[in-house]
Design brief:
This protein is an alpha+beta fold. 33% of the residues lie in helices and 34% in strands. The protein has one domain: Alpha-Beta Plaits. Strands 2-3-1-4 form a four-stranded antiparallel sheet. Strand 2 and strand 3 form a beta hairpin. Helix 1 packs antiparallel against helix 2. The radius of gyration is 12 Å and the shape is elongated. The termini are close together.
Length: 82
């Protein structure tokens, strides 16, 4: 199944944005369609790959401290499977 998601990462009580930068780097190298916006990143692709990328992005961000990740997931706005 193809899905689309928006994801935002919030570093709590951290002095910089390295956690966000690490999460974005993971998402951009995931092989999924990843469009970085000022307040979130838009992803789309196969559901298994998308969930794996979200997990890897959260783990990368969490290496820098306490982290919140907010995800909105849909199959209504996803590109058709090729």
């Amino acid at each position: 199944m193809m899905v689309a998601a928006t994801v935002a990462v919030y570093p709590l009580r951290q002095q910089d944005y390295r956690g966000i930068e690490a999460a974005i780097a993971v998402l951009q190298s995931s092989g999924l369609s990843a469009d970085v916006q000022p307040m979130h990143t838009e992803l789309s692709g196969p559901i298994e790959d998308l969930f794996a990328a979200l997990r890897a992005a959260f783990e990368a961000a969490a290496q820098y401290g306490t982290t919140v990740m907010v995800v909105t997931l849909t199959n209504a706005c996803a590109p058709a499977q090729q």
